[in-house]
């Protein structure tokens, strides 16, 4: 597990540090304080600089050049939203006793113009021009990965798929759940690894926090194309006809996504942006119990964000448990005008809840 991390040059952070990290870490702070940016930076670190992770991050934010072949606009990941030679950002941390890091740097290289351009511009045209590249250096890879950017500064998703180091089609143990959760196709693919295993009961238990009458869940299989909330049906006790899981609303889908993905993160990391999305405050304590228990069972380090006091207070109920060690849960307060997060231990979270002290 990472115990400390340092972010330099990523989005709005010239330098940012977090310490006293634990098994489960909840990020709090005002709007635009940078909680999601911190999650993204840690996701890139955990993914070892996987180029596919770059695509997922930018695509979720709508940072794209739309056209016949859509490209992601990577400029927004760098401070100043500009791409220039030498621009870089890095994320580093200590995982156990091992230092890990990922560094992304904008470079350039000479590219010979094609013959048509030479004919149009004649002798005044320089024999070479510059094309921008992204170099991704990571302790997870023996050599940097080089991605060529388009003339408008975009990154084609096909490049990330063709790279031998990319894990686009693999099953990594580092996952990011955004505020939209996961789409049906992606979740069904993960479910294929869960069904008919002991982990299926963990997923059913999570769904029953939202609807205790749920008896069974089934998917239609990963060979089809589903909508954002498609691919699953559930059956309630006493009802003969199953119905689409999407009919239960966002809360059930959110629980399903977190429970399934936790089982697929063994030895890795899970990131959840706005973890309370779609969930009523009465189920949040159960949600935290499930996450904490599964994180220990599968050796997963969890990072989540929230604005909700109910979410923070519910986490404090886990800290009161005799089975919970103070060093296994933290709240990290992110503030835009500070370069270091403010950590709160399990004991401090308990005290804040008991005395109704605001720590968001």
Automatic annotation (TrEMBL):
<dbReference type="GO" id="GO:0005524">
    <property type="term" value="F:ATP binding"/>
</dbReference>
<feature type="domain" description="ATPase AAA-type core">
    <location>
        <begin position="24"/>
        <end position="308"/>
    </location>
</feature>
<dbReference type="InterPro" id="IPR003959">
    <property type="entry name" value="ATPase_AAA_core"/>
</dbReference>
<dbReference type="GO" id="GO:0016887">
    <property type="term" value="F:ATP hydrolysis activity"/>
</dbReference>
<dbReference type="InterPro" id="IPR027417">
    <property type="entry name" value="P-loop_NTPase"/>
</dbReference>
<dbReference type="Pfam" id="PF13304">
    <property type="entry name" value="AAA_21"/>
</dbReference>
<protein>
    <recommendedName>
        <fullName>ATPase AAA-type core domain-containing protein</fullName>
    </recommendedName>
</protein>
<dbReference type="InterPro" id="IPR051396">
    <property type="entry name" value="Bact_Antivir_Def_Nuclease"/>
</dbReference>
């Amino acid at each position: 597990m990472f115990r400390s991390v340092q972010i330099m040059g990523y989005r709005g952070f010239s330098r940012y540090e977090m310490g006293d990290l634990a098994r489960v870490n909840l990020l709090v702070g005002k709007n635009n304080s940078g909680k999601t940016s911190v999650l993204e930076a840690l996701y890139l670190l955990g993914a070892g600089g996987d180029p596919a992770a770059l695509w997922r991050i930018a695509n979720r934010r709508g940072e794209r050049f739309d056209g016949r072949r859509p490209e992601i606009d990577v400029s927004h990941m760098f401070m100043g939203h500009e791409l220039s030679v030498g621009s870089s950002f890095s994320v580093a941390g200590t995982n156990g006793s091992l230092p890990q890091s990922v560094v992304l740097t904008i470079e350039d290289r000479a590219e010979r113009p094609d013959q048509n351009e030479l004919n149009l511009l004649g002798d005044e045209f320089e024999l070479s021009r510059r094309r921008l590249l992204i170099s991704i250096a990571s302790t997870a890879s023996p050599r940097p990965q080089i991605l060529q950017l388009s003339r408008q500064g975009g990154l084609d998703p096909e490049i990330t798929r063709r790279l031998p180091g990319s894990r686009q089609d693999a099953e990594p143990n580092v996952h990011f759940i955004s505020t939209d959760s996961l789409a049906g196709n992606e979740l069904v693919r993960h479910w294929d690894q869960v069904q008919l295993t002991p982990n299926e009961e963990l997923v059913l238990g999570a769904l029953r926090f939202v609807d205790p009458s749920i008896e069974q869940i089934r998917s239609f299989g990963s060979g089809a194309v589903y909508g954002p909330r498609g691919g699953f049906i559930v059956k309630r006790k006493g009802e003969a006809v199953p119905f689409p899981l999407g009919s239960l609303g966002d809360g059930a889908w959110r629980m399903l996504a977190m429970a399934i993905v936790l089982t697929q993160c063994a030895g890795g990391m899970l990131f959840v942006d706005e973890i309370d999305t779609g969930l009523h405050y009465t189920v949040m304590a159960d949600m935290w119990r499930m996450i904490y228990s599964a994180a220990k069972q599968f050796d997963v380090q969890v990072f989540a964000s929230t604005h909700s006091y109910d979410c923070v207070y519910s986490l404090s109920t886990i800290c009161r448990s005799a089975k919970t060690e103070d060093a296994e849960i933290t709240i990290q307060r992110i503030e835009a005008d500070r370069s270091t997060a403010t950590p709160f231990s399990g004991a401090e979270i308990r005290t804040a809840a008991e005395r109704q002290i605001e720590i968001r």
